[in-house]
Design brief:
Oligomer: single chain
Shape: globular
CATH superfamily of the largest domain: NAD(P)-binding Rossmann-like Domain
Bound molecules: guanine
């Protein structure tokens, strides 16, 4: 039986509509949520993401502040900008686009962001809060995956979840979120023995390794929900193509539900960033948090 395709593009549009409604209500109270995005250098993929973030921030009615810095910007100058944004009451969310140029210490830079404005959820304090099941800012990509999984399954309690990939941005926070929803969680990675058997026992399989079509249909447990976080640019038959970490055609024949690439997880990331910015704005002012937009 063919898998249900989980339409992330449509889901993200609904999340953005819900954020826009919330922003309208905040504006009626005289508050406009503001998101500052900092881009250092000219990495082409990062430039595309930052442009999309800026556009969508404005579309939901928020204020957008873009700071584009030279690739040679010093750490001191970047930290000074972040200190300014931390103190700016018009800015409720701050995102520093990763990866940063090699001469900049990403951990130091991320940990200089006010945790209350850390809409990426990467600050060590938010990582600790999430890891102990406390209220935090939740990293956008895993948050988007969680929203889609909850919408598809209802309760996730007791389900066997396997996450392939152990990054700080996706794999590790995804594991924490699924654990908080009472899944039995395994994080697999490049050193995992017999990855195929590990994947085959998953009710929920999250692929976040950054290797094109690495997971074939034979590795998917029949009926499982497959969330493909990978966005890999490849060339096939002389044409540029975007593919995930899962081999879509074969996996879709076995899975119960699957996210496509493009149009699955990708659009949810920015939608969740906007949701987090709304939440950060409300928390900073002691206002009620937006319903349905927090983890
Ligand atoms: N680069 C790739 N994904 C992300 C993300 O979610 N946040 C930031 N800040 N940079 C990224």
């Amino acid at each position: 039986m063919a898998a249900k395709i989980i339409d992330g593009k449509a889901f993200a549009a609904k999340v953005r509509a819900s954020v826009a409604e919330h922003v309208t209500a905040l504006k009626a109270k005289g508050v406009t949520p503001g998101l500052a995005v900092v881009l250092v250098g000219k990495d082409p993929a990062s430039q595309v993401y930052v442009r999309n973030k800026g556009q969508q921030t404005l579309e939901v009615g928020m204020a957008s502040f873009e700071h584009k810095l030279n690739a040679s910007t010093s750490e001191a100058d970047l930290l000074a900008l972040i200190a300014k944004l931390n103190a700016d009451t018009k800015v409720h969310g701050i995102l520093v686009q990763l990866p940063l140029p090699k001469h900049l210490n990403s951990d130091l830079v991320i940990n200089s962001i006010d945790p209350a404005k850390d809409v990426d959820g990467f600050h060590i304090s938010n990582v600790g809060l999430l890891g102990t099941g406390q209220k935090s800012m939740v990293p956008c990509t895993p948050f988007g995956c969680l929203m889609m999984l909850r919408a598809h399954h209802g309760s996730l309690a007791g389900l066997e979840a396997v996450i392939v990939g152990r990054s700080n941005i996706v794999g590790k926070p995804m594991a924490q979120l699924l654990l908080n929803d009472s899944c039995t969680v395994t994080i697999a990675h490049s050193r995992t023995r017999d990855l195929q058997s590990v994947c085959r026992r998953a009710d929920i399989l999250v692929a976040a390794v950054g290797r094109p079509e690495m997971i074939p249909g034979e590795w998917v447990n029949p009926g499982a929900t497959v969330i493909d976080v990978g966005i890999n640019r490849i060339e096939r038959d002389g044409k540029a193509k975007l593919v995930g970490d899962v081999h879509f055609e074969s996996a879709a024949k076995v899975a119960g539900a699957i996210t496509p690439v493009p149009g699955g997880v990708g659009p949810m990331t920015i939608a969740c960033l906007l949701a987090n910015t709304s939440t950060a704005c409300c928390r900073s002012l002691g206002l009620p948090e937006p319903a349905g937009l927090t983890a």
